[in-house]
Fold:
Amino acid sequence: MLAQDRLSIAAASDLQPVMSRVVSQFEKETGDKVNLSFGSSGNFFAQIQNGAPYDLFFSADAFYPQKLESAGLTQPDSYREYATGKIVLWVPKDSKIDVSKGLNVLADAEVKKIAIADPQHAPYGRAAEAALKKAGIWEQVSPKIVLGENISQTAQFVQSHSAEAGILALSLVLSPAMQDQGRYFEIPRTLYPALRQAAVILKSAQHKEVAQRFMEFLRKPEIVSLFRQYGFEVSDGSDR
Structure:
């Protein structure tokens, strides 16, 4: 099957563990084929504005899909908030950092580098920055910050010990690749704006019918359960 015959999905990096499983299930049940690309929401937003040939865009926040909708670049009425994400403080299993103390532990002298996603184009990075500011430690920890291009690269920084700790997506931490590799502290939701994640079908989509089928597929109870398994909150089906 040629690449142009496949549904093309641009998805935020926090979705990598769950979306790979969703797509596999979708292909099995429908026979449709999917090309799945992961990256930062902001970079995809810029690419789509410049005509990148995606059919569907799954953002890690509502902001970018809403901007595309306002610019007339989406299929009418295709906007959907599909999940709410969460952030955690994560350290490798062999770390001596006590994550149960919460974000304040990051101000300790033994923590030299803290990985977060780049707030310029990664919603999870913006959430991390907001949480550190709300916790009152941003001034102390900002010199220690190292930026990942997206939340997956941020996780790699901590896994490879390039940083002692990271503020990551709960979905990645619960993935098979990471769930036994470290310890985490769930950052209170009061410390950062809700990570309301949204998707749109693009006006330029070559496979609008398949894209619509995929959006409907996400409503299936077993798919909702899969998102919840990876730490996402899933709404009751109201789109806005």
